[in-house]
Amino acid sequence: MTPSAKPRVLQMVTHLALGGAERVAFSLLHGLRDRFDFAVFAALGVDTGEVGQSMKSELAALGVPLFAGRRLPMRYGGMIVAGVEAGRAVRRFKPDIIHVHTEMPEAGYLAMTFLHPATKRIPVVRTVHNTTLWGAWHGIGLRCDRQLAHAHVAGVSNDALAAFQRLRAESKAPAGPAPVLIYNGVAVQPAPTRVRAAEGPCRILFAGRFENQKGADLLPEILGKVSPPANRKHELVIYGSGHHEPQLRALASAPPPGWSVSVNGPIANLTREMPGFDLMLMPSRFEGLSLVAIEAAMLKLPVIATNGPGLREVFPDGYPWLPQAGDADSFADALQRALNAPESCTAAAELAYDYAKRHFDLSAMCDAYADVYRKALAR
């Protein structure tokens, strides 16, 4: 790097597709363009759907180089292939910093540094995006943590940092730079004045991966335990994809009494749709720190979430709609109370909005990462 050049940062993400880690990486591309040059390595390539293609087009419009790996699962050698492709990206882009986001990029980094030991000399920043780490691949996660012991670590929530500390204690990796908390930020949009119409259907939103983490499997049981007020139609609109899609489509074809349900694929800009809804459901068992929940709060869209790790940090103390994570009965009770007393939803949305404005500012997030980058370069 010449003295006049901007430092070059290679963002390593899992793929260009629906995901909070990818969205954080893209926020940094936009927010820090004047201070750093970026490229993106997508370990598992680019999803062929609307979201992935939109992200690819966005990078092209920004002039940000994209290095795409191949969609090969870990058990079929995906880690090695990701390491080979990451090495190629490093050789071509010549980054001053590598920024890894989530497990698959960490695995690719581990493989890359074994294949090309000189790459380990490049300063590394690591963001911990979740509160449950590595799952079935825990042994590989411990090896990655040891290989990344020198990295500057940022956690997106206190719960995410606690998960990292548990992993570090188990891996017995040497202590590195002190980890820091950097809350995910979103652009503060002018919150519309929400007028809950007495006529027309009550439109309820669920958006996310159709996986156990997001509680998608609980939706049929939750709806089956709720009796919507008879004076209004109630529509649940679902956006996303994942393993529980057949279960959700079965729900849509035979919904419980008083409900209509539709299932749709992921969409590129969910915030455009949010103002058209009356309520959002997030029955997640755990999160890192949900960008979708923060965006809903910024738009004063009432959210029934859970007290699950990571997700609970989006909301202030005293927020009334945080039922027990993983408990369909608890969530159904909260939803029933919200539908019976819609004015309580409006008050809760105001609480969440005020809290989000103070804690999840996009420029603050970007400044915090710029500081981490500077510290990494100084080592």
What can you tell me about this protein's structure?
With about 375 residues, the chain is an alpha/beta fold. It has two domains: about 10-185 and about 360-379, 3-Layer(aba) Sandwich (Rossmann fold), CATH 3.40.50; about 200-360, Glycogen Phosphorylase B (Rossmann fold), CATH 3.40.50.2000. Helices cover about 40% and strands about 15% of the residues. The chain contains twelve helices and twelve strands. The chain has helices spanning about 20-30, 50-60, 80-95, 105-115, 140-145, 160-170, 220-225, 245-255, 290-300, 330-340, 340-360, 360-379, and strands at about 10-15, 35-40, 65-70, 95-100, 125-130, 150-155, 180, 200-205, 235-240, 260-265, 280, 305. The strands form two sheets. It has a seven-stranded parallel β-sheet with strand order 3-2-1-4-5-6-7, with helices on both faces. Strands 10-9-8-11-12 form a five-stranded parallel β-sheet, sandwiched between helices. Strand 8 (about 200-205), helix 7 and strand 9 (about 235-240) form a beta-alpha-beta unit. Helix 5 crosses helix 6 (about 160-170). The longest helix has 18 residues, at about 340-360.
Question: What key attributes describe this structure?
Answer:
globular, 12 strands, seven-stranded parallel sheet, Rossmann fold, alpha/beta, 379 residues
